[in-house]
């Protein structure tokens, strides 16, 4: 970390004012609305600038983390020492026949909306998922019976050697909340989804029905990161938590949602510590009662 001041100087000469921030509070960039400051945040608006940022980060040997909209991320209260690369500058969406090509920082729900506007079906499940295309590919995001692996054609990524590589659906090794992107620390800069021609009204009706179910079952009026825990094999996390009597369990400003036990929410000005204490308590009680280890779906970074 000794070279971070030198990195700042070099970054200033390459990136514009809107693309770089220093000592940036991460609570402003996560859907949980918690987290201390990162030393540097870079929001590159092109693949070339992303690669340049990674080149400089590696040159000075500074720790870094790649994020999208922060919808699946908890940053601890002490913040993140190093660089946060936020990809929301890569937010284009292009429709070509039955394919949609989107930047890694494009909103997944906006991409699904674009599919609707072009009467392309198959992406309805993604219309209420709050993250980016890159994050969705990295974790094979899914909901209501659909997953990214059902519709993806290819993804373009930056590898550890700072080369752009194009990976097919098979190359990506997509499985439940997992992909080769995670295995090899790749950065998704673009993805192509192959959809089918459909009927606009039917696609719209399907999306509206899925969103109605989300609103009915999920605590969307509170900051959270969606489903906090991965689905354990043979179980549902929410049911295990509810059967453990933990609905409404609260620590500080964080709480297990009374509407859906699979969601930990920022109920009242929670700190990251509050959220993490609730998560740990849930994990401990569920393991004690059912012998099941709940793994977090949400990513946790930073220092206390």
UniProtKB/TrEMBL annotation:
It holds the Pfam family FAD_binding_4. InterPro entries: FAD-bd_PCMH, FAD-bd_PCMH-like_sf, FAD-bd_PCMH_sub1, FAD-bd_PCMH_sub2, MurB, MurB_C, MurB_C_sf, Oxid_FAD_bind_N. GO terms for biological process: cell division; cell wall organization; peptidoglycan biosynthetic process; regulation of cell shape. The keyword Oxidoreductase applies. One of its GO terms (cellular component) is cytosol. Residues 34-198 form the FAD-binding PCMH-type domain. It comes from the Bacteria. It is an enzyme of class 1 (oxidoreductase). Its EC number is 1.3.1.98. It is found in: Cytoplasm. The keyword Cell cycle applies. One of its GO terms (molecular function) is UDP-N-acetylmuramate dehydrogenase activity. Its cofactor is FAD. Keywords: Cell cycle, Cell division, Cell shape, Cell wall biogenesis/degradation, Cytoplasm, FAD, Flavoprotein, NADP, Oxidoreductase, Peptidoglycan synthesis. Pathway: Cell wall biogenesis; peptidoglycan biosynthesis. The active site is at 177, 227 (proton donor), 297. Cell wall formation. PANTHER family: UDP-N-ACETYLENOLPYRUVOYLGLUCOSAMINE REDUCTASE. Belongs to the MurB family. This is UDP-N-acetylenolpyruvoylglucosamine reductase. The gene is murB.
């Amino acid at each position: 970390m000794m070279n971070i001041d030198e990195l700042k100087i070099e970054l200033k000469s390459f990136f514009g004012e809107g693309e770089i921030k220093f000592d940036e509070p991460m609570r402003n960039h996560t859907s949980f609305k918690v987290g201390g400051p990162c030393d540097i945040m870079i929001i590159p608006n092109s693949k070339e600038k992303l690669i340049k940022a990674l080149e400089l980060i590696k040159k000075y040997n500074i720790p870094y983390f790649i994020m999208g909209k922060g919808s699946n991320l908890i940053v601890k209260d002490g913040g993140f020492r190093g660089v946060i690369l936020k990809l929301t500058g890569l937010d284009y969406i292009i429709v070509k026949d039955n394919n949609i090509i989107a930047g890694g920082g494009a909103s997944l729900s906006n991409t699904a909306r674009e599919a609707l506007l072009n009467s392309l079906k198959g992406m309805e499940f993604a219309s209420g998922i709050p993250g980016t295309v890159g994050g969705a590919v990295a974790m094979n995001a899914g909901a209501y019976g659909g997953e990214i692996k059902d519709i993806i054609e290819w993804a373009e990524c930056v590898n550890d050697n700072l080369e752009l590589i194009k990976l097919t659906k098979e190359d990506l090794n997509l499985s439940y909340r997992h992909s080769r992107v995670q295995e090899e620390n790749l950065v998704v800069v673009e993805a192509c989804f192959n959809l089918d021609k459909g009927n606009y009204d039917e696609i719209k009706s399907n999306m509206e029905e899925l969103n109605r179910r989300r609103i009915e079952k999920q605590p969307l009026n509170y900051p959270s990161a969606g489903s906090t825990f991965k689905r354990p094999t043979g179980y549902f996390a929410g049911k295990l938590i509810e059967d453990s009597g933990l609905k409404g369990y609260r620590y500080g400003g964080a709480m297990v949602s009374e509407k859906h036990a699979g969601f930990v929410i920022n109920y009242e000005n929670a700190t990251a510590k509050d959220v993490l204490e609730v998560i740990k308590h849930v994990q401990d009680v569920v393991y004690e009662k059912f012998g099941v280890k709940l793994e977090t779906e949400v990513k946790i970074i930073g220092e206390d």
